[in-house]
Amino acid sequence: MMHTVIRCTAFAIVMLAGVQAWACNDAVVLVHGNTGSPSDWDNTYSELLDAGYSAAEIQRPDWGSKSCAACNNHSGSEEDPVVDALVEALAVSCSGQIDVIGHSMGATLAAKQIADYGLAGQVDSFVGVAGAFRGLWTCGTYPWNVWSSTCGYWGLSVSSPFLDWLDGKTLGSRVYSIKSWTDQVVCATGTCTVGGRHSSRISGEDATYSFPYGHFGLQAYTASFQVDLID
């Protein structure tokens, strides 16, 4: 499902040395976390609008069950809204590339779609916010103590087949992680690290940043920083 349609829906006029030139934005895809909603990105959405993006350039897919966190994983119906949003973003992107920001399980879910559909070459920047790319100790270590779909084969148990497959996959030209050492989900057992590295870090990333905001605060309170990263 490779879509390379480039359609410029919005542009800005900039002045460079007194010469009028055209500039356009990458379209942006914002993927919420487990049982979350598109509105979780309201702060980031507002920052993007203030930075000159149009609403048409911002995709916020709505995925997964809202009432059963343990039911969601990275395979099946959860995937469809996310890959559709990636394809739509590519179709409307003036630059022909996209930026992807995912929070929590939305980061690993977005990463899977990029890897599955070979989209990394069209992703200018990927930002994982409070993701669990190395797994959650609350999910156990696969295949022991795996008690739910979210923690299973396609889930976030440490060393799950899914996470082992995802590790090292190329996700974009620039890759960043935003993490917290007081994360109520990633660090719920009191340990944030897997194999000596914070679980929110992404293999091959260009940089990682720490903030003291916790799991949900990272999404809400780093909005301007997220937009700076993809700029």
Task: Tell me what the structure shows.
The chain has 231 residues and is α/β, with parallel strands linked by helices. It is built from six helices and twelve strands. A six-stranded parallel sheet has the order 4-3-5-6-9-12, sandwiched between helices. Strand 1 and strand 2 form a beta hairpin. Helix 2 packs across helix 3. The longest helix has 14 residues. It starts with 11 loop residues before the first strand and ends with a helix. The N terminus is likely disordered.
Largest sheet: 6 strands, parallel
- Cα radius of gyration in angstroms: 17 Å
Report the average pLDDT across residues: 91
Q: Which runs of at least 5 residues are low in confidence (pLDDT < 50)?
A: 1-22
- Counting DSSP E segments of at least 2 residues, the number of strands comes to 12
Overall 3D form: globular
Structural class of the helix and strand makeup?
A: alpha/beta
Report a brief summary of the structure:
The chain is 25% helix and 23% strand.
